[in-house]
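Format notes (please read before filing issues)

Several people have asked whether sequences and structure tokens are stored in separate files. They are not. Every record keeps both together, in the order shown below: the sequence lines, then the token lines. Line labels are part of the format and must not be stripped during preprocessing.
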Amino acid sequence: MKKPILRFSKTSLRLIIPAIGGKCPLFPLLLWIAVSVSMAGCASRYSSLTPMGDLFVEPIPSSRVILSNITAKQEGDELLIAGEVRRRNTAFSGMGHVDVAVISPSGAVINQTNAPYIPKILPKTPGARKHRPSHFEAHLCCVPPKGSIIRLAYHSKPGPDDPLLDCEDNAALPDGHDYGG
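Then the structure lines:
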């Protein structure tokens, strides 16, 4: 059996047609809502960028942890990036590190590193909605140009015998990255 097609009654059409024709005072409001909804899709590509002075910070979403309270300070020739790592659920072991990459406005990788967090195993808070955070700090020797993006990503420890910071894959690097920075 086919489902019925949505149909408007004659009374509904009498109310809708003047609104579409611009004779109703609600027409500007409806037009503004339609434009706002369509523009939301255009802005979604950069929605995770947070301005921080002349730079932008972009934490890469993870199903295991939340990166939050991120700060970036230029101290002479050194860029200090700090923040918190919090587990999303108690089933996750919490072993890993934070990968950091600084990307120029043209897309070149300026510098990259990984930073351990303390405590090494993300704390569990039984019965609480939020678990206590671990803290990380990364020091990079660079002065990024205005408009650069600091990307941060959680990188879990693959196995019990793998060293934490001896990984060659930086999860914060964008796909198709350019090492020529």
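For reference, the curators noted about this record: The longest helix spans residues 27-43. The radius of gyration is 24 Å.
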